[in-house]
Amino acid sequence: MAPRRRSIEINPLFSRPGEATERPRFELADDSMLPETAYQVVHDEAMLDGNARLNLATFVGTWMDEAASRLYQETFDKNIVDKDEYPATAAIETRCWEILARLWNAPDPRAAIGTSTIGSSEACMLAGLALKRRWQQARRAAGKPASQPNLVMSSAVQVCWEKFANYWDVEARLVPISADHRTLDGHNLDGYVDENTIGVVAILGVTYTGMYEPVREIAAALDRIKAATGLDIPIHVDAASGGFVAPFLQPELEWDFRIGRVHSISTSAHKYGLVYPGLGWVLWRDTGYLPDDLIFNVSYLGGSMPTFGLNFSRPGAQVLLQYYNFLRLGRDGYRAVQRASHDVARHLAGEIAKLAPFELWSEVPELPVFAWRLKDGYTDKWDLYDLGNQLRQGGWQVPAYPMPDNLADVTVQRIVVRNGLSLDLADRLLERIKESVSYLDGLSGPLPHEGRRTTGFHH
Fold it and tell me: Which domain holds residue 43?
């Protein structure tokens, strides 16, 4: 491996008269640089990143239209938390979560409450805090200890929930998935909940496979537990991906505020909300489910601002982009975009299933996401990590990773189809997969795996 250079050599590429010939890489230089040169240095280094359009590892959006990009450039200086300075942006933020309250069938959208966040991870943190605080208040009012809260969720939960449990001293009770129960479906739930359970998390779009967890069945299991024990346990729906897909592609599916036990819902706008990163939303079915003592009224920058969040300065441009999408697309537009992504995913899954080495683990469920595994006994020369590395050489990022506990011996590969991946690009990917399989099958022996570069798992 070449030694790490301590400086950036500028000339001869940027041989402008009077320009420096090099710059330190890990400390500030004493003098300044022409803006055009500084731009070119950063621009050129950023070119070494992967092509975002070919990144099928991530759920995060990588494309918006030209008008949205122009709006972004015009508004990136706005701080969404400073509602006194940017009242129009604050009003649009409220409109956005009220639109979501109606989209998610809140009983009375005017009684709901919500906020934007920097992403769905912060949204989950805020929802978890509300669950914990309401549980603590109820326990203390009943004269009971409130020091050992727990939260029940699938072992396939996104890592942000494990962070929440760690950061806010909540026991994470992970219900293991299995070949028979590939999601949290209410099975054996009574073995995990007790009087210290602050809530159950249901995932509308498991990151490993794209599958929806059946919120109605989880709620029914909790109803039975309440009838047997008196425990009245709420549900938070982590709809990071499905919150912007289910209302348009599966409108009859009951997963949202139509289920009374669902107290809060979070989503990621920079996934299937079709906004550039980073933006998330979290909503409560009515104001009673968000404790007042979590809301700060801060006198700052010329006014009093109610705020609930982990950040006090964050960009407002993405909120405006969300509203742009709501105006630009409407229900029909969102339905068309999500349907196109779903159609591409089905096409890819169908063609990959025809290839001799593979079998589908999830067959394009509700999300335009699917995963496959290598058939048992197909080969001892290569595995899905090797295939991922071959695809990366062609610019494609397709992750391979082990499933969670109880299925950790199962390795899958996953594709996330997002707005911007056309059928034509999908066919180019299929050609690359076939070429890579042919190359790997033709090897004289197993690839050396020690120290190999493997594809990563991106949420």
Answer: 7-48
